[in-house]
Design goal:
Order of helices and strands: EHEHEEHEEEHHE
Largest sheet: 8 strands, mixed
Strand content: 25-35%
Number of helices: 5
Oligomer: single chain
Shape: globular
């Protein structure tokens, strides 16, 4: 198994969580404009046999943002609103796609200063019951206690999937893509 990601910080975190994966840095896969599970299912199918892919989604004040990397700049407008981080791992076994999923509930904050090293939108998410953002928790070595990425990795290690779908039952995607020209970005 190998983890396919273009984000070296994800690779670092999965290594820290003890996944026995060959880490393979790669290009971002195109993403379907579908449900949380559809995005992970199709990314895993495109990644090929033996691949593990991750899809990160946030639910901001009840609305799913499956394209958070392009909307992060909007988070300060939702200060004090609810946010749920959803991490979905898709593992392509060669015959099936296994999905593993974990969620973290929190509140959106406006960071007083955003560190260049901050991971994704970690500076904007305060887990329920905490007074520090995920980025601030990372700085004091406590982020892993609240990490849905770690929880999803544990599910994968322990083979506790949310769902298992035979590859032959994953239809070709005919809907919209998150980026309109995405299908042309798939390399043969």
């Amino acid at each position: 198994m190998h983890l396919l990601s273009s984000n070296p910080k994800k690779l670092e975190e999965y290594t820290r969580y003890g996944l026995s994966l060959e880490m393979r840095e790669g290009q971002d896969l195109p993403e379907v404009d579908g449900t949380i599970e559809e995005v992970a299912l199709h990314k895993a199918k495109m990644a090929g046999a033996g691949a593990v892919v991750e899809d990160t989604v946030v639910i901001v004040d009840g609305t799913v943002w499956n394209d958070i990397k392009w909307k992060k700049h909007l988070l300060p407008h939702f200060h004090g609103k609810s946010i749920v981080q959803v991490i979905t791992l898709g593992h392509n076994t060669g015959t099936h796609i296994e999905l593993y999923q974990a969620k973290l509930e929190g509140v959106i904050t406006t960071p007083t200063s955003e560190r260049a090293e901050a991971f994704g939108f970690d500076a904007y998410l305060i887990p329920i019951g905490q007074s520090l953002s995920l980025d601030e928790l990372e700085q004091i070595n406590r982020k892993d206690e609240f990490s849905p990425r770690r929880w999803a990795a544990e599910q994968l290690k322990n083979k506790r999937p949310l769902s298992v779908t035979a590859l032959e039952h994953v239809p070709e995607w005919t809907g919209k893509w998150q980026v309109p020209d995405a299908p042309s970005k798939i390399k043969p």
